[in-house]
Design goal:
2 copies of one chain form a homodimer. Chain A is built from 17 helices and 27 strands. Chain A is of the alpha/beta class. Chain A has 5 domains: 95 residues, Beta-grasp domain (Ubiquitin-like (UB roll), Roll), CATH 3.10.20.30; 77 residues, Ubiquitin-like (UB roll); 143 residues, Domain of unknown function (DUF4445) (Nucleotidyltransferase, domain 5, 2-Layer Sandwich), CATH 3.30.420.480; 166 residues, Nucleotidyltransferase, domain 5 (2-Layer Sandwich), CATH 3.30.420; 95 residues, no CATH class. In chain A, the strands form 6 sheets. Chain A has a 6-stranded mixed beta sheet with strand order 12-11-10-13-15-14, with helices on both faces. The first copy, chain A, has a 6-stranded mixed beta sheet with strand order 26-25-16-17-18-27, with helices on both faces. Chain A has a 5-stranded mixed beta sheet with strand order 2-1-5-3-4. In chain A, 54% of the residues are buried. Chains A and B meet through helix 3, strand 7 and helix 4 of A and helix 3, strand 7 and helix 4 of B.
Chain lengths: 644, 644
């Protein structure tokens, strides 16, 4: 068959394809930037493109994401459209372009980081007080003589013992074959990299010529199901040098962890999933080192924090038994592994350490987050609510910790909603409705492109307060100038096309609201069941930490108003952003912290909600804004009553 | 050029070769068994073959190893003879056949071994008292349930903690990828292999299906310059299951460590030397497992003991700076290394541990020997004299240890002597000369093939006592019926051709005796200098341990008589055979012992004889039987005087 010529606009990029190939696949292969959240399943509606010319075939799956007008204009979903013959010309509109690098990585816990050490503190005889997982030491060895004839390796040990308080030193065998030549051709000057995961048994993993101490970097990685964030950290100074984020390329194999597990455990799917996450991280690494002006080989170690499935997939461990009862992972505490063996770039001897998990559905992202919030460290009762593709809840203090997981879905990350998007440039993050008018703010003050988590929360709270929807999420004011009905579904237009970047309206539909209510209901119900099993209630929580990529302007009142957070005194509520990343960074910067997080993971008691008799009732009761039992939300009730 | 057809007799094996190829190389390539000690340098005379037919060219190097009669009959050295054209027929006479498997491996220290544990001692809750470097544990895990939902790895840890007293458990990452499937398809029954080199930090390196506890073997290897000996040990029972020995195939690259170092450090010679020793060991391993009826995969760990150069070559570390002042090895204590990475057969995850060295010329064979003899353990002063290709001496007790190395050469191992051979079948190991008649015994009661170490010692002592040679080693009785002069060199015929296996005479020449005197002189001088530097004399030695492959019937009186051992009370002298192998086995059977040997190595003080002002004078003074200062050997003097 004749190949098809495909031109992508506005890039004017022309490529060849086989008849029958999908537009999304062609774009992915040729490096053309097309958004895609569901992995080409036709269920996210994010890959809308316009066929300008030529013969194509749209399967029709996901047609609900396109309006009649759009269909008439030639819009299709790239993942559901095949090119057929001749010359095909495709327009990728602005809203369908990925903007990976612009994902906001709110990390509100950075201020809690303690500096590892200032350069001037690096004096002989002491390790850095907080031992980063890799430390570099410079040695200038005296040339051997007949009277001082220690072996090359023992000469290094002798020097290191003066610089460190390490009780014993061990060496990775791979350092030895080149050692003799290297020392002699470099004037006996070398830099030794110690790995300190086993604090009492530091291992020399790298011995390289000259003084490379200044180039000692680590990378903390939040390995999210939807989004992956990597932070480049100067391990000498304890400072964050850069941060990059990207969609997890695994998304092409399924939007959520369940569909990825099914893929991984059939048709030899483990390797593609592993490669997808590794490639995603490697792309971030390349950008990080380029922007920081360092080399990939300056990256000496990694700490990854992800949910249990993501951690298994990153390490190439089969996640098949995580999915089905009794939900058993291969491991919850993970041995260190040479990063190159996993496929990560960086120094060839660099090590990947993964944050420990508690169970199949409470992973390393959560244990890292508990540490970052300090819940394990205080006598007061704290709760961590991490809203990602799943919702996880931890409650406890310095004596005990319990946790559970709720299938919240990715609604607050923009998934499954018509104009939902992640907290990137152009996302509406703040909304007010006053006197029939809508005021909104976007991230980066850009033209509106969609609604991120905080924007969705604001929208729901404002729509109830403006009596446009009721507390069940149904539209009750169909006459409002911003309300319209599209194909029988009412929706509220936040920004009309004339003022958006895309020229398309940004709206929230009744279906979107229903999804969001299910998400927040799953989380609140889980927290309530967990507290009740401890004989406690919301009022017993001294601190509530909300983690997740909501956007920068999350509003406490509104978050309580919709019932995502319990109605507790406002000063008890802390928005902590990406607590997983913060915990990973803390572990990277201190072996003690890494071990503390491992001990936190062992301490945490997991509650399996799927078999809890009360959970389903509580879930149904929470499908209301804020909740069917209004007495649980006295301040919200008071406010609504005061408005009459 | 037309290839040459070469037929080897008596095997009747016909092969093709290139014109100009050496007979020894053709034989090596085609697996035809031809002896060779010097590595094809023409300096050992062990590869004599007879050209029966065809055109060949003998370079003439090493012609001194052939008598005129032999030359007339067509004998040549295989390493110095090229095949030229047509059909060449070569006879390999019996004395030129390797009999690798028959090398005696006198290991007189086996009786000191303590059994690791009897099978019935293996009960839950205790490690084996003396921890072998690898131990196997069987687990039958309860199937997980929602109430008992530990991860696969944690289930194993939980079971192991009941069986062992290990404070912490760690796992090699490579165990994890297949773990989930393996446990589920094998009814949750598995055998876990722990590696215990770091006693407080045991590592799980292998998790395999079913109960394989019974198959837990290790191999102790004496990595000698000339001979390699491997002992297969049942790590459960602490019993030796088999032993095999072989010429070190590195010999083709040079007879002694110096020439091998030169080869290794030029022309990319490290890899061939490493491969040669690894292949030698692998051949032994295959024979060991075949005879024991086990699989190569049942070998879980290795302990190698060799001199510093041999250890470097085995591990693939460049030995280049060992050779030249100030004689610096890459390392003296060696990290554990995955045996497969070195090239050794055995379980893919098996580990090679190398015995620690002291310096470039006192290696792991000696530290292992010190432990095996127990010198480090007693207040009395002990001396270990290890006579191999080099001679090493250690003196000390439980408070201090000093050591040195003497370039003794391989004369007592059969090198550089006309009819010298190692202690294998057919070696004359015992000689008496009475009333002009010669009585001798051979190993295995076979027809004589040559003289091993104890035979050479006996010959020298008897020749002096019978006044056939003088104390300087010169022949004085040329009329003795067993004495004759061959090409101007007098020699003593121990066994005439009519009673030998080969039909050739077995004799010791004046040149042989001169070589042997140099060897023993180097060793005795070294011991004297070492003692004097401590303010001590031979009389201060409470125990003298003589190690080396001399043969089974070493005679104390004669060993003193020739001046290889000092003239101390006879009960102080102990022939310990292969103490290096014994020490390696003890280390294999106990991590505590391995660590003790590492600490012994750190304790030992090395004396560099090459720069010692007295050494050369002492060496010259020792070139006499037993010594020019007869007052040092009062009992020998008394005996000689009593005979008038």
């Amino acid at each position: 068959m004749e190949p098809v010529k495909v031109t992508f606009q506005p890039d004017r990029k022309t490529v060849q394809a086989q008849p029958g190939e999908k537009v999304l696949e062609i774009a992915a292969r040729e490096g053309v930037n097309v958004n895609n959240l569901c992995g080409g399943q036709g269920v996210c509606g994010k890959c809308r493109v316009k066929v300008l010319e030529g013969k194509t075939r749209f399967t029709g799956k996901g047609v609900g994401y396109l309006s009649r007008k759009e269909l008439e204009e030639g819009y299709v979903l790239a993942c559901q459209t095949e090119v057929l013959e001749g010359h095909v010309e495709i327009l990728i509109p602005p809203e369908s372009r990925k903007e990976d690098e612009q994902i906001l990585t709110t990390d509100r816990l950075m201020e809690y980081d303690e500096p590892v050490a200032l350069e001037e503190e690096r004096r002989p005889g002491v390790f850095l007080k907080r031992q980063p997982l890799s430390q570099k030491f410079y040695v200038e060895l005296p040339e051997p003589t007949l009277d001082d004839n220690l072996s090359d390796l023992e000469r290094i040990y002798r020097d290191l013992r003066k610089q460190t308080s390490a009780p014993t030193l061990q060496t990775y065998f791979g350092c030895l074959p080149e050692l003799a030549s290297m020392l002699r051709s470099n004037d006996w000057k070398a830099t030794v990299t110690l790995y300190l995961r086993e604090m009492d048994h530091p291992h020399i993993r790298v011995i390289e010529p000259g003084d490379t101490r200044a180039r000692n970097y680590g990378v903390a990685i939040d390995v999210g199901t939807t989004t992956i964030v990597a932070q480049l950290v100067d391990l000498n100074k304890g400072e964050v040098v850069g941060v990059e984020a990207s969609h997890n390329r695994q998304a092409r194999y399924g939007e959520d962890v369940i569909s990825r597990m099914i893929f991984a455990c059939s048709r030899k799917g483990l390797d593609p999933l592993k490669n997808a996450v590794v490639n995603t991280i490697n792309t971030l690494l390349k950008t990080l080192v380029e922007k920081a002006g360092i080399d990939l080989e300056d990256i000496m170690c990694f700490v990854g924090a992800g949910n249990t499935t993501m951690t298994h997939l990153l390490l190439g461990l089969e996640p098949c038994h995580i999915r089905l009862a009794p939900y058993i992972p291969t491991a919850t505490q993970f041995p260190a592994v040479q990063a190159h063996n996993v496929g990560l770039m960086g120094h060839p001897q660099s090590i990947l350490h993964c944050m420990p998990c508690v169970s199949s559905y409470v992973g390393g992202d959560i244990t890292a987050g508990v540490f970052a919030c300090g819940i394990h460290d205080r006598p007061e009762i704290g709760a961590l609510i991490d809203v990602g593709t799943n919702g996880e809840i931890v409650i406890g203090n310095n004596e005990w910790l319990v946790c559970c997981s709720a299938s919240a879905g990715p609604a607050f990350e923009g998934g499954g909603t018509k104009c939902g998007m992640r907290a990137t440039r152009g996302a509406v993050e703040k909304i007010n409705i006053r006197d029939g008018k809508v005021f909104y703010e976007t991230i980066g003050k850009a033209g509106a492109r969609g609604l991120c988590g905080s924007g969705l929360i604001d929208a729901m709270a404002e729509l109830v307060q403006a009596r446009i929807i009721d507390q069940g999420g149904s539209f009750i004011d169909l006459d409002h100038p911003h309300v319209r009905v599209v194909e029988d579904v009412p929706e509220f237009v936040v920004a009309f096309g004339e003022e958006t970047e895309t020229g398309e309206d940004v709206a929230i539909t009744e279906d979107d609201i229903s999804n969001l209510i299910k998400s927040k209901g799953a989380i609140l119900a889980a927290m309530k069941v967990l507290l009740e099993s401890l004989g406690m209630g919301f009022e017993d929580l001294d601190h509530v930490y909300l983690a997740g990529g909501f956007g920068t302007h999350l509003n406490v009142e509104r978050t309580i108003f919709i019932g995502l957070l319990p109605d507790v005194p406002r000063e008890r509520i802390h928005f902590v952003g990406n607590s997983s990343l913060a915990g990973a960074r803390r572990g990277l910067l201190s072996a003690q912290v890494f071990h503390k997080i491992e001990s936190i993971a062992r301490t945490m008691t997991y509650f399996e909600l799927s078999v809890h008799p009360d959970y389903m009732n509580e879930f149904v009761a929470a499908l209301f804004l804020p909740h069917t039992q209004m007495e649980l939300f006295p301040s919200v009730r008071a406010m609504l009553e005061s408005r009459g």
